[in-house]
Amino acid sequence: MIYRGHVVTPTATGWAAWPDGRIEVDGGLIRAAGPWHRANRYVDLRPHLLFPGLVDTHAHVPQLPICGVHPEDLLTWLRKWTFPLEKRFRGDRARDLTRRFMQEMLAQGTTTAALYTSAWPDSVEACFAAADEVGIHAWIGPPLMDQGAYRPVTTKRVITEARVLAALDRPKLRFAVTPRFALSCSEDLLEACGDLALARELPIQTHLAEQPEECRAVRRRFGRGYVEVYDRAGLVGPRTLFAHCIWLTAADWRRIAHTAVAHCPTSNVFLRSGVMDWRRAQVARVGFGTDVGAGPDLSVFRVARMAWTVHTLAGQSIDAGKLLRTATLGGAAALGFDDVGSLEAGKAADFIVLDRDHVIPAGAPTTESIEDLLSRILHRSGRSAIRQVYVAGRLVAEREARPSSS
Ligand SMILES: [Zn+2]
User: Fold this and answer.
1) How would DSSP label each residue in 94-142?
2) How far is CA 150 from the centre of its chain?
3) Please, are residues 265 and 275 in contact by the beta-carbon 8 Å criterion?
4) Which residues neighbour 38 within 8 Å (Cβ) at sequence distance 6 or greater?
């Protein structure tokens, strides 16, 4: 199948755009992408924009129902709103809400994600099944907890369940070893997580240094700094993805260089956590995370815009191309998926169709540069601009038809 439209994609060195372009898809993969040349049969998506599917490197599947309410400090928010919600996330309820989450994520243009389920094993199975059904790439893991857990568990039971669930791991859908955060784990559990990830070559995802009070509590409990707690358990390495990374020292950043970072500025503003140091973070592979339910929704475009806002105000201005690269190829690199994140030959045919009329206002100059186009996409895209979403060449989400396209 061939798709014709305005193709916009990051490349190894920068960005490419073909106003009259094509994507050729075969067997779920992109066979070629570039300028249009004659073909007899094709799907005509002109004048709309064809853009890579977005990558969300941090979201909690059970938490969608609390998005946008209860902006309290982190530890209160977890205890009062999050844990009670996750406690009920199991069985048919988990299966139903996971499918809805997946459909909403696709409608927001996200086709690759790193996800936390609830601590219940059947919510992990539900998430693998739902992700498999739509064909996305993902990391999936249950938040492992043996301290202050919302269900009766022992350390042994938590790690035994994780070992069983790790059998779900496969190339496109990775089982991620997911110690929730240091305060939810005993030292024994953290070490067992490090051992499991090492033995099975599994990725690791967790939270790091989101709020000052959390960091102080970690030091009180473990008698050492946050990064050192994870390091001693064997949890700091090239397959590790840390969310937030706000309250870190220069030495901490040096220690977590070559790991991956999920940057979650909408969540960080909502819970008043602080602003991550963008420049220092460049020692790691950085992607964007919506961090639903502390983030308001599953829009990676919104997260990229918030990054533009907070870092511009903090004197670290970032151009639109770099931010959109972080939302696509950057996130893919953070998760170690080298076959998604751009529209290039050999990659999965994961792409979104952005409504041109929505992104570029009528009457705009026709002589705009690619930088201007990327700025428009960054500042004007969101759920309502997304007409269609394709995963592995299959149409998986479509905006309802409207009487007017403006
Ligand atoms: Zn989180």
Assistant:
1) HHHHHHHHHHHHHHTTEEEEEEE--SSHHHHHHHHHHHHHHT-EEEEE-
2) 25
3) yes
4) none
Give the whole-angstrom CA distance, residue 287 versus residue 294: 17
User: How many residues comprise the chain?
Assistant: 406
SS (H, E, C) 83-103: HHHHHCCCHHHHHHHHHHHHH
Distance 242 CA to ligand 1 centre (A): 10
What is the number of other CB atoms lying within 10 angstroms of the CB of residue 340?
25
Only one residue has tokens 């500025």, namely 265
Query: What's the gap in Å between 240 CA and the centre of ligand 1?
Result: 15
What pTM, to 2 d.p., does this model score? 0.97
Could you tell me which of 63, 69, 70, 68 has the C-alpha nearest to residue 85? 63
Q: Give the tens place of pLDDT for each residue, 162-197.
A: 999 999 999 999 999 999 999 999 999 999 999 999
Task: Read off the amino acid at residue 284.
Answer: A
Token pair of 185 as six digits: 């784990």
Q: How far is the CA of 135 from the centre of ligand 1 (A)?
A: 24
Rounded to the nearest angstrom, the distance between the alpha carbon of 317 and the centre of ligand 1 is: 25
